[in-house]
Design a protein that fits this description.
mainly alpha; about 0% strand
Length: about 280
């Protein structure tokens, strides 16, 4: 039986409305960053900038320690994601392939860690880092960021490992591969969608993290981009063009990564959620 016209239209209309609602703030941020100051403060909104200027980007990148913030964010984020993937690959393989006492408790523990709000543990983290004389260092941030994204990474990759038939791994071992070689040559290539989805999630989580670096790193040389972005009122005052330029620069890495990985990442999230 054919669906009614309303039944065919409402999903598309809803999708369009949601798309506009999510995309318009991003468009307005980027377009404002390229507008002259006169168009920004004009009473009549300028929807499509005609006079493009890069003045606001020059002002945003001219702030003291900007490139230090960029390098710190990249180092901490990439190292945290890389370490989490290495640990999660081993942990997910153990949870999916091996049977040991307390295995179910491990899985429940990872789920609880995923749901726990990290903000309530900031004081304890601060005391640990202070006692270790590691305040204003990138090492604690890297370790804590890795711990933040590790539960989700393990649980997602566990579903992918469990979805790989044991027979493939056993066949490789019969052909002379060790267990480690079978994992590297047979299982690891099949985990690509899961690795992409967890990498994207981990990158966004670590890149956007703000409270921890605010508490642990007080010196400008050890801070990251989220803290720099939060100080726009001090750095730029009421200069909304520079503020939007700073926000655009902060969002560009995530947008680029999402554009390249979104198709595989979405399929990885759904597959990892239903398998295992």
């Amino acid at each position: 039986m054919k669906r009614s016209l309303f039944g065919r239209l409402w999903p598309n209309v809803t999708a369009v409305v949601l798309f506009i609602g999510f995309v318009f703030p991003v468009y307005w941020m980027f377009s404002t960053a390229f507008k002259p100051t006169g168009d920004i403060i004009s009473e009549d909104p300028v929807w499509f900038p005609t006079d493009v200027t890069f003045e606001h980007f020059e002002k945003a990148t001219g702030v003291d320690h900007f490139w230090t913030y960029v390098s710190n964010s990249l180092i901490v984020t990439l190292c945290a994601v890389g370490l989490a993937l290495v640990v999660a690959l081993a942990g997910s393989f153990a949870l999916a392939r091996m049977r040991f006492k307390g295995r179910r408790g491990f899985i429940i523990g990872f789920m609880l860690a995923q749901m726990a709000p990290w903000e309530v543990m900031i004081i304890a983290m601060y005391m640990i880092v202070r006692d270790a004389s590691l305040l204003n260092s990138l090492l604690p941030l890297t370790v804590f960021y890795m711990m933040m994204i590790l539960p989700f990474t393990i649980l997602t990759l566990r579903g992918f490992v469990a979805a790989v038939p044991r027979e493939l791994e056993e066949a490789a071992m019969v052909d002379g591969c060790t267990r480690a070689q079978a994992f590297r040559k047979v299982i690891l290539p099949l985990l690509a969608p899961g690795l992409m989805s967890t990498s994207l999630f981990g990158f966004i989580t670590a890149w956007n993290e703000f409270p921890l670096v605010l508490v642990l790193n007080k010196e400008a040389e050890a801070q990251t981009l989220p803290l720099w972005l939060s100080s726009f009122q001090t750095a730029f005052g009421n200069d909304w063009g520079a503020t939007m330029a700073a926000s655009s620069l902060f969002a560009i890495p995530i947008l680029i990564l999402f554009v390249f990985l979104q198709r595989r990442a979405v399929s990885g999230l759904t597959a990892g959620a239903v398998k295992g």
